[in-house]
Amino acid sequence: MVDLKYISSNGVEFDLHDFDSAKLFKADFHKVKWTPEVVKKQYGTSIIRFTKDPQKYPCTFRFKGDPAQRKTQIDNFIFATENDIAKQMPGRIMWNQQYIQVYFNEHDCYPIDSGMTWTEMEGTLYAPFPFWVEEQYYEIRKGEEPGWIPEDAKGYPPDRDFKYGYTYSYRFGSGATPYFIDTPFGADYRSVIYGPAPNGVQFIVNDHLYRVNYPLRRGQRLVVDSRDSVSIDLKCIVINEDGSIINVFDYRDPQSSLFERMPGGAGVIYGYGDYDIDITLFLERSAPI
Q1: I want to staple 102 with a disulfide (CB 3.0 to 4.6 A). Which of 125, 169, 207, 211 is the partner?
Q2: 3-state DSSP call for residue 199?
Q3: Which pTM was predicted?
Q4: How far apart, in whole angstroms, are the C-alpha atoms of residue 186 and residue 161?
């Protein structure tokens, strides 16, 4: 059975299989739509590109038990979801290890039989970013220069069996680790690099350089986040030991396209220098699997 939860922006969890929590009776999580942008021709159209609108999931929740119990459950769920709306910070629908960020922005409650033993709540889950995300973690620890390079570092292997479990962490002391992005969209990333690094920091994915020319002291860590949803002030920052933040966006190396997404398929992440690197890849899909 799928592990299905709603987690509010402040961490309150609701088991969507459980009548004692907030039982999700139905939702259209696998309904997908891509919209073509076209140029009209005499016969048909030419497609310029496909776009994807924010996703709206019609859904129905069911609550049972005595009226006081149902009222408490509904109030708890509505309070958590409206707190997300008030703060403009989305909650998450978790489908096993995949999630989509949503707001529960429409709802209506009513009893569904004359005995009033059930209450249904119909509503809409609104996803501003219409993709389900699965996070894939890697660790590169300081050590020797990378000595392992696979022959097919680019593209998909012929047998397509070069897969890694998304929820596992990889630790390589040689300064290199293979990855596999099993989605045609590639992946955004978030990297954390731990000082000291007096000459700046860098890592390479296949042939692409990611580099920031900011020297790190011991105890500092550099965080780079390529996702569009992250504020420009937080996309390239240094976090000090006391938690204060330095914006180092302007220290991006001019030869490096720092926020370039990592391509789909198989590849290698190389870490150079005497520092540790943690990398999270954000794999995107139109529907959960």
Answers
A1: 125
A2: coil
A3: 0.82
A4: 18
